[in-house]
């Protein structure tokens, strides 16, 4: 089978070439694990879909973070969904998992992954719930939007919530969950197509295109802000800080404008945090693991009630994973970026 491993750490943007000169290597003809290599506690999973996340760029840096960096030569870490094709003997007897089960877990950029079953979670699929949702709304994406809004942003009905990166996976859910909570949402995204989708299909009333030459003026017209859900960082965050209301909360979810840039543009407006007695707080979704069920139940209820627009951008084939990652930094996705591995 094939897999993608880390070849060298990029200094700025990822180099997508897979010919042995880029950031990653495509390894073909990796032997399938033999039966005696699948130990008790392990399963072999055929990977069906992998998630492409901006955070992956950070996992390539040899710096202190919330997870260790991916090692040189190791398969690229990625969340995935797939089906169990083989189980160790003891696992078969225990009967918790069966061959054919759909599961979600850290499956990496692999066509097949050998993983400890304790790191897998069985997933339920039905007419309303696609397996890909477990990498998006029913996975880390949904959890991030939910806890960033409720626990960090402490949103209240009627408040003005600004979401940057609003047409992306986390951003588009954050907009919708805030709206369903009764907030006035201001969505910021790049380009007319994404803005049209947010306005006409997602139903967000105030949508601003940051690539529009009039953006700064239009941004000032929205008035003052109670909650910022920031996915972008840099000058976009700075603009939001300039417009904080007294007691505002700024949830620092991500800073995609800074991930490829070792010396990002500095913030100028942070003194407004003082004058407006506002709070700025970073968060990592993993810290909510013991409460994931709360968000998952609420989001699943909204999905079944047809209240969420869950858009996905699909690429096809393992060799497209790297292009998917590079594409996130070029705005190539609307909604969740995913790669289908193997045949459809
Ligand atoms: P997205 O689907 O939002 O994908 C990236 C999008 O970001 C692009 O489509 C593009 O949209 C936008 N973008 C890229 N570069 C820039 C730039 N320089 N300036 C402005 N916008 C840019 O990814 P996710 O939804 O998966 O992640 C969103 C954010 O949330 C990321 O920062 C990520 O790191 C963070 N995150 C944080 C977590 C946590 O626990 N704190 C967990 C998960 C994600 P456009 O065309 O509009 O520019």
UniProtKB/TrEMBL annotation:
Keyword Oxidoreductase: yes
GO molecular function: oxidoreductase activity, acting on the CH-CH group of donors, NAD or NADP as acceptor
Keywords for this protein: Oxidoreductase
Domain Enoyl reductase (ER): 20-339
Protein's UniProt keywords contain Transferase: no
Name recorded for this polypeptide: Enoyl reductase (ER) domain-containing protein
Organism for this UniProt entry: Rhodotorula paludigena
Full protein stretch here: 93 to 436 of 440
